[in-house]
Amino acid sequence: MLRAQLDSAALAAAVGVDVKTVNRWLTGRIPHQRTRLAVADALGEDEADLWPRVRPDLAAGADSTAEVVGAYAHRADIPHQVWTSLLAGATKQIDLLGYAYPFIMEMLPDTMNRIVDKCASGARVRMAFADPDCPHVAERDDLEQIGGTLPGRIRNALNFCEPLHDVPGVRIGLHGVHLYNSVFRFDHQMIVTPHLYRARGYQHPALHLRELSPHGIFAAYADQFEQVWQTCTPYPPQEVS
To answer: Is the entire prediction scored with pTM above 0.85?
Structure first.
């Protein structure tokens, strides 16, 4: 409604219902299908995005392909504007998990300032990097055949994050997990890159996902982030008094 610049009264007029009915929708009431289609048309949105619960394919154990916005043979194939729109559009939650991912910090000239501004407006940002000194980083470096450069790339990414160290709402952690995928979540959308044997980060395939169901593929990768995050140690290390 905000994107369409419609308040409750304007939406009610557009679809021919009482404003009280619109307000009931905003508290969780689901309208009839004909009205749902009229609302989706008025807002320029997809019915399934507005009311995912009406989709029978979003039940537990159902096909989750509706959550796949796009699939790319390589992370490098994702258009730059997809990344920047995800970052710019996030208002509540940004969760990043990988080994280094400095390309995220280099996405825009003011990426760090944008993150600071988002946190000032109430967003939560969690960034999980691999511990550059852990054994798994050496193993990954050898696997990708990058000549011992991965620890330096991680430290470079951490250096980008220095302006975020004292920002309320930002948490940075180091993990020692042998990752099978990287996860980049922006509110209810994410990019996931499953890791291939001997492939480097930009060569991995990538999925652009949107959250529609608590039982879907998005939820599975969101849980993956939470599981790894629980193993992280804070960065920079917290001083012991």
So the answer is: no
